[in-house]
Specification:
heterodimer; A: 188 residues; alpha+beta; Ribosomal Protein S5, domain 2; two-stranded parallel sheet; B: 330 residues; four-stranded mixed β-sheet; ExoRNase_PH_dom2_sf (chain A)
Amino acid sequence: MRGSRSKALHDRALVNCQYSMATFSTGERKRRPHGDRKSSEMTLHLKQTFEAAILTQLYPRSQIDIYVQILQADGGNYCACVNAATLAVIDAGIPMQDYVCASSAGFVEDTALADLNYVEEAAGGPQVALALLPKSDQIALLEMNARLHEDHLECVLDAATAACRAVHAVLDQVVRDHVREVATLLGE
Amino acid sequence: MATRGARTRALASSWHGGGKPVEPKGPEAAAPPGVGMAAMEVRLPVARKLVGQDLARGSGRDLVAPGDTITTDTGYMRGHGTYMGEEKLVASVAGAVERVNKLICVKALKTRYNGEVGDIVVGRITEVQQKRWKVETNSRLDSVLLLSSMNLPGGELRRRSAEDELAMRDYLQEGDLISAEVQSVFSDGAVSLHTRSLKYGKLGQGVLVQVSPSLVKRQKTHFHDLPCGASVILGNNGFIWIYPTPEQKDEEAGGFITNLEPVSLGDREVISRLRNCIMALVTQKLMLYDTSILYCYEASLSHQIKDILKPEVMEEIVLETRQRLLELEG
């Protein structure tokens, strides 16, 4: 472990995440101070999500670093980070329980919307971010801001779950193509 | 998984930099008079087509992704890369399933180096501690080189004293490269090295290439003197060291005196060409061993050294190498 060895856990690996946004990622160029509340919150959410999915028991006294940087913030920042980090962890060969697929969902004018973009997020309605392990249907992280009537919660969650499964299909296809390609090239 | 920050970068999209080169045409691209600028080559990104579709080779093994059920039969023992879900065996990495009698494991495509006794590794010293050195070998934990496992200059065999401990920094400092052999593996996976033979020790002038450990083929010997004029050490941990062949084998030195004489231009060109060939083989995912590197070198002789890194030239060279290797086998 680089850095402070005192944080090492004796029986599992530590997952260290860092979330940052490029200055050109939003509509107005903003100088982001590096420890601001939004990125700390995102960092914590990413850490919780991946600690649930990565099999950390296999690597005691070690640290896994996941650094994500947003290049274009057009809605669903957290979800894009989770999907990208899932692919990165699979590519690195770190064992995970399952893919982690994330999607956001909202509720506007009695319809549930999935995968909100920046305009829909900025409108101020309720938003739900869901990170799902698709095979076992386990939720790694569920976050909501603003207020939503409990009657509507069911359909919003269904929309988010359907979107996560769609993302899972895409990620799965990419991973399988890559594995097949490398296995064919390595050949023997 | 890594002891030091293993940066897991998000997978690059399929928009590779290897696109069609755009040649600057005609007078628009000419530099204004008075400014001496060489013609620049600009590449546009193009969607990369999957290599290997045209190589019709069925690997015949199951390829799995994390979360896939391998089997529901509980009679199997689970190996690396799998975990027990409720009543079924589930894969935890993306790779090929390997079945040996009752043991099922999934071999991931790209992992950190897992030490096995007897492997040759090339490593870099990161720390000098009380009676040992910590060596970075592209594995999850730093490898350890104990003072008692290091051969003293002159090859003498004696008990290491307190003066030896104080003089550790004279032998190896932070940043030095060494070649060593794995002596044993600790229970947590850390590897213990030894340099108890005169062929191991500190490395002098040369070029280091870092590749994934899964691309280095396991062979009887990993020290090769290639006929093209350079020597190569293929470390099992993915560190490959290319260096000029020493004229006479310096037996007494025991690997401590680094040869700092200037290397001739011819040797340096050979070493650069070998390095670019190795990068080409790695990009096209061909296993690295002395024959494949040599054939790739010979196939690349018709191109300039810097052209070898262009994607189309890489494909051509590696295809020729593959064909020669197939002829060799069959």
